[in-house]
Amino acid sequence: MMHLAEINIARLKHDADDDRVADFMNALDLVNGIAERSKGFQWRHIDESGNATETRVMNDPRVIVNVSVWDGVEALETFVWGTVHRQFYQRREEWFNVLDSMHFAMWHVEPGRRPTVDEAMARLQHLNTHGDSDHAFGWSHLPAATRWRSARCSAVAAE
Length: 159
Fold this sequence. Notes:
The protein has 159 residues and is α+β, with helices and mostly antiparallel strands. The protein is built from seven helices and five strands, in the order E-H-E-E-H-H-H-E-E-H-H-H. Pfam families: DUF3291.
């Protein structure tokens, strides 16, 4: 059975050491720890920071990236919408700018595969250019994914 990889990028409204994003930055260890202990979690990208906050994408130090692999959509949905992660998702407007393009993509990977950040960014770009396909897709492309609808995830964020 194929696993599910995901990338999520966001641009902080303020520098990572600014008090206005401290609630988010201070919760990274907690939220990532919950992810790692979640049923179905396989792997996540970690850099020298112990999270992924020093990984640079888009040549912008305020853009943060998350890349992870899960057993399948149910496991990822349970983490995203069924843990404390949802509370942070609901507060995203406090900490992040709205991006002009898709910020989230998923794709299937062989078990044991760990996608690079460059590969994940290419998948996100493919989704932005071509829309949902088997190469890269959003929540709405997965019939088994249902929780995003009740979580008030916008259609744009779900694509």
